[in-house]
Amino acid sequence: MLQVCPNGARDRSTCPHLPVSPAELAAAVREAVAAGAQDVHLHPKTPEGADSLAPEHVAAAVTAVRAAVPGVPVGVTTGAWAAPDPRRRAELIRSWSVLPDHASVNWHEEGAEEVAEALLERGVGIEAGVFSGTPAARRFLASPLAGRVLRVLAEVTDTDPRTAPAAARTLLGELGDGLRAPVLLHAEEGAAWPVLRLAGELGLDTRIGLEDVLELPDGTPAATNAELVRAARAMLTATR
Predict the structure, then answer these.
(1) Mean of the pLDDT values across residues 148-170?
(2) For the stretch 87-111, what's the b/e string if a residue is b when 16 or more beta carbons lie within 10 angstroms of its beta carbon?
(3) Neighbour-count burial of 162, counting CB atoms closer than 10 A to its CB (0-12 exposed, 13-18 middle, 19+ buried)
(4) Average per-residue pLDDT in the chain?
(5) What is the largest CA-CA distance in the chain?
(6) What average pLDDT score do residues 140-144 get?
(7) Cut 0.90: pTM above it
(8) Phi, psi of 125 (to 5 degrees)
């Protein structure tokens, strides 16, 4: 499975063509799905471009994207930067009027289980974010919720393209072979493409989008999420 992550926590100071509004997200995701994306992970934002878990912003983003790509699963972030207090994050989740298909929970963040439990209460699938270089793998594997997640997002935080594949293998080793959920392996910036290639070689789910990387494999700037998805599809096909 190839997921598109169209915007992330970035803003237009680093990416002038970043999709921010619900209409922009809908257009970007429509193009990305046409290019081969099969799932969506997005960051709802305020009109000013800040990540938000407020029900009105989640509803607007999810509704617009769903209308653009009917039948394609749409997920959102619950990152602590959007609402630092985990109790507040859980409250916001319980107030959502439109529910995404899934939402990511970063297991190295304090209150991850509380946030995950709120999602389970609402019937929202959990993408368990497990970052390399953090205690997330150990915490996740020890969690009573480990068997109740939709997938594990194995995120390599090493951005060096030379060393990131080894860091990815270390992270996968920490997660072990006993997981009962699929693993989506990905990285960011300079490491995004070598780790995506590794995911293809290992037969794992992966993702690409302007959240993770702003350049194509040859280093040229990516104009759209769809351009990144097409390049990812080509790379994944070549690994088979």
Answers:
(1) 96
(2) eebbebbeebeebbbbbbbbbbbeb
(3) exposed
(4) 95
(5) 45
(6) 93
(7) yes
(8) -65, 150
Residue partners of 74: CB distance under 8 A and separation at least 6 = 29, 40, 42, 62, 65, 66, 100, 101
Q: Which two tokens stand for residue 24?
A: 């922009």
pLDDT of 240: 75
Closest by alpha carbon to 172, among 112, 129, 132?
A: 132
Rounded Cα distance between 227 and 221, Å, is 10
Question: Cβ distance 105 to 125 under 8 Å?
Answer: no
Token output for 174? 């920490």
Tokens representing 63 are 């509704």
Q: What is the pLDDT of residue 158?
A: 95
Nearest residue to 4 (alpha-carbon basis) of 198, 226, 221? 226
